[in-house]
Amino acid sequence: MLYFVARRLVSALSVVLVTLIATFALFFIAPTDPAAAICGDRNCTQERYNEIKKNLNLDQPKVQQFAEYTAGIFAGRTFETSGVIQDCNAPCLGYSFKNDRPVTQMIKDRLPVTVSLVAGYAVLVLTIGVFVGSMAAKRRGTLGDRALMSSTLILSSVPYYIVALMISLYFTILYPILPRGGYTPLTDNAGKWFAGLLTPWLVLGIYNCTAYARYSRGSMVETLSEDYIRTARAKGLSDRKVTYKHALRSGMIPVITIFGLDVAGSLAGAIFTERIFDLPGLGNLVLQSLETYDLPVIMGTVLVASVVLVAMNFIVDVAYSLIDPRVRLS
Amino acid sequence: MSIGSPDSTVGIEDHPASAEPERAKGVAHGKSPTRIAMDRLRKDKVAIVCATIVVLFILVAVFAPLLVKLEGADIGTFNPDLVDAYGFPVNGPTPAHWFGVEPKTGRDNFARWVYGARPSLIIAFIATVSGTVIGVVMGLLAGFLGGWVDRIISWVIDFVLSLPYLLFAIAMVPIVEQLRGGSFNLTPAEQAQIRFFVLIFVLSFFGWAGLARIIRGEVLSLREREFVLAAKAIGVPTRQVLFKELLPNLVAPIVISASLALPAYVTAEAGLSFLGVGLIEPVPSWGQTIATATNWFKADPIYLWLPVLGITILVLALALLGDAVRDAFDPKTRR
Lengths: 330, 335
Description:
The complex is a heterodimer.
Chain A: H1 2-29, H2 34-39, H3 46-55, H4 62-75, E1 77-81, E2 84-88, E3 95-96, E4 101-102, H5 103-138, H6 143-157, H7 160-174, H8 190-224, H9 227-234, H10 239-251, H11 253-269, H12 271-276, H13 282-291, H14 295-323
Antiparallel strand pairs in A: 1-2, 3-4
Chain B: H1 10-14, H2 33-43, H3 45-62, H4 64-71, H5 109-145, H6 147-161, H7 165-179, H8 188-222, H9 226-233, H10 238-246, H11 251-275, H12 286-293, H13 301-329
């Protein structure tokens, strides 16, 4: 077990290290003039350009720049802009010369939005998906089961952003049946927070629960045909107890695995939802930064998202190996 | 001629151990798995309908200039006389403009829609082909050679699969533009062209890994089979074992993966263009039109619904077709 965890940890850390190098290479080695890229084309003065160049030590060797960047993540560093020295505390992911703020701060500001969105989505998708899936598995082969499964296939084949956009335009703006998307901090006004996130949650949850319904149906169908379920039935346990206490427990293992990766992926990939429902989360931050060519922000977000994904991958793998010992052998 | 040189296997090539037996005409014979799958597909009504729709879209894309000529408009002409002072189109569909004109610019909607089918299909097809080729080659090499080659390729697969691809796609755009002289110094046409290649690159870069992992697993079990051992024993060169012996046995996973990749790439291309990361003016693209049309959807619904229906129907048809293909090729559903 320990050997398995250690091996997975080394592999996860190697992925993080290479991602760090890759993002650094993408933003500091690939562009012919990184300072110009960071400064942007519009409104870039010569002074600003020189300042960026000096701040990031761009005339030093690339290896030294990389070392400084990495050191900044662990120990923090300082930047000098317009004559003022700005602290960039650890984990320092760079400095946005466009907004005159450390990237870490900007990401921290946006994080509650994305986390709120993903948390509500996670609750919704898991409950609806698993419930629908296990209902379908119990009634396998009936008309209801088949109708449900083919409708989930059709819904999940329509691109997500089309569904979200149409619901947003027609049901929150033209015919306001659902509350319009928006973000109010939970600590400011819990009711407004909930109302603004309700539609995005519903859209994201209902669209994605189709996949969960399929997974849990497949897994439950398999579990329900196992011997121990027959034993439980033979003992005279109630149908409800057999399904929800005996079968659901082991049937949910593969679903939870997918769930873990999906939540991590949503943290990095809720871009469409955030754009369509006007939520100022991480995804919107990246899109806004693209419009203004604020490269350090894009770089920082990519790095954070990659690390979250790798960490989640690792946690899911270890958790899975705890539940199912066969995994450790491979 | 020494044993093991390519020439010594000329005869073997014609009778590979894995292939179906030679058929005599009129004699009952076994069918190859691909044949069985194709037969089942032909009987599947949903598959036929979806395939027809996909072919229609391809025809629209191929004959876009002809269709537009038939209508009598073109994609680039601005018609400021057809929109009012606020940019709203003056009249709806007319014989000269079948689906009306764009708000603000007054360009022809039908022409933009017809030409919009092109980038979607071209990018999706190129990305699918290149992603599939890379995935198959990598999977074959990793599975067959084993050892450190396998370890490196498997690590790269894990690495690619653990990256957030949407974010990387967004990050690639400014970098590539900067490499070509900065977005400020590029003409819109040049910028649009760069975006086109960035899209293909990003989609194939993130698309090959999943297939490579599947192929690797299949090859791991296939390489221990007798026909591969036999081929190796008589000195068939590695390249030939890989592509002449193993590859024909991998048709099913390859076809399935490609049929699932196509709708995913059409979706991704339009989605990235919708976000402003993909194709940009002057190249007409559905995703980009949807993004603009959301500002006009109350006054000019047709402008929004054209690309929305285009993408939805195309992706739905491709996805259901892919599902039918998967069913047809899956030995577990064999009747």
